[in-house]
Amino acid sequence: MTEIGNRSSRSRGGAKKGITIERIYTTPGVHPYDEVTWEKRDVVQQNWKTGETIFEQRGVEFPDFWSVNASTIVTTKYFRGALGTDQRETSLKQLIDRVVLTYVKAGKDHGYFGTEEDAEVFEHELTHALLHQVFSFNSPVWFNVGTKSPQQVSACFILSVDDSMDSILNWYKEEGKIFQGGSGAGLNLSRIRSSKELLSSGGTASGPVSFMRGADASAGTIKSGGATRRAAKMVVLDVDHPDIEEFVETKAREEDKIRALRDAGFDMDLGGKDIVSVQYQNANNSVRVTDEFMQAVEDGTEFGLRARLTGEVIETVDARDLFKKISQAAWECADPGLQYDDTINAWHTNPETGRITASNPCSEYMSLDNSSCNLASLNLLKFLRDDDTFDAATFQKVAELVITAMDISICFADFPTEPIGDTTRNYRQLGIGYANLGALLMATGHGYDSEGGRALAAAITSLLTGASYKRSAELAAVVGPYNGYARNADAHKRVMRKHQAANDNIKTLDAMDLSVHKLATKAWDDVIKLGEKHGYRNAQASVLAPTGTIGFMMDCDTTGIEPDFSLVKFKKLVGGGSMQIVNLTIPRALKKLGYQQEQIEAIVEYIADKGHVIDAPGLKPEHYEVFDTAMGARAIPPMGHVRMMAAVQPFLSGAISKTVNLPESATVEDIEMVYMEGWKLGLKALACYRDNCKVGQPLSDAKAKSEAKDEDKAVEKVIEYRPVRRRLPKRRTSQTTSFAVGGAEGYLTAGTYDDGQLGEIFLKFGKQGSTLAGVMDAFSIAVSIGLQYGVPLETFVEKFTNLRFEPAGLTDDPDVRMAQSIMDYVFRRLALDYLDFDTRSFIGIHTAAERARQVETGSFEEIATEGDDDIEDELQSLQQSAPVAKKVEPKQEKAEDRSVEVKSGAGAASARATSSDVHSSAELMEKFQGISADAPICMTCGTKMRPAGSCYVCEGCGSTSGCS
Question: Mean pLDDT across the chain, nearest whole number?
Answer without folding.
Answer: 85
